[in-house]
Amino acid sequence: MDQLTSILPLILLVVVFYFLLIRPQRKRQQDAVKMQNSLTPGSRVMTTTGLFATVVAVDNEDVILEVAPGVETRWIKAAIGRVVVPADAPADEPDEEGKTESEAAVEQNGDQDSNTKRS
């Protein structure tokens, strides 16, 4: 009985590590593999290094990405970090005067913002 009480904290520690570290990491890894296997041409993606591109073609373990018009590169699927969902409308679209919302806000404040000091 004394041996069981000395081993019980070790067993509890292993169980806690499993539920707090191992299980969530395995789920994230499975989700990433599922996302990488569901890539289709035309999808907008971001690589793990932060490169935004569009999927042109998908081979077995390779993905051909178009970085700019006419510029295609070959990547492995594991390098795809996430699929980027396009927003409905960008926040800084120019208005009819050619100014963005942030530029118009600075004009309305009369350049009183301390961050916009001119030297």
TrEMBL record:
<keyword id="KW-0813">Transport</keyword>
<protein>
    <submittedName>
        <fullName>Preprotein translocase subunit YajC</fullName>
    </submittedName>
</protein>
<feature type="region of interest" description="Disordered">
    <location>
        <begin position="87"/>
        <end position="119"/>
    </location>
</feature>
<dbReference type="GO" id="GO:0015031">
    <property type="term" value="P:protein transport"/>
</dbReference>
<keyword id="KW-1003">Cell membrane</keyword>
<comment type="similarity">
    <text>Belongs to the YajC family.</text>
</comment>
<keyword id="KW-0653">Protein transport</keyword>
<dbReference type="InterPro" id="IPR003849">
    <property type="entry name" value="Preprotein_translocase_YajC"/>
</dbReference>
<dbReference type="Pfam" id="PF02699">
    <property type="entry name" value="YajC"/>
</dbReference>
<keyword id="KW-1133">Transmembrane helix</keyword>
<dbReference type="GO" id="GO:0005886">
    <property type="term" value="C:plasma membrane"/>
</dbReference>
<feature type="transmembrane region" description="Helical">
    <location>
        <begin position="6"/>
        <end position="22"/>
    </location>
</feature>
<keyword id="KW-0812">Transmembrane</keyword>
<keyword id="KW-0811">Translocation</keyword>
<keyword id="KW-0472">Membrane</keyword>
